[in-house]
Amino acid sequence: MVEKKPSPLQTAFWLTDQEKRYILVICALLFIGLATRYFYLKNEKSEVFVPSGVEQASKNHE
Question: How far apart are CA 25 and CA 32, in angstroms?
Answer without folding.
Answer: 10
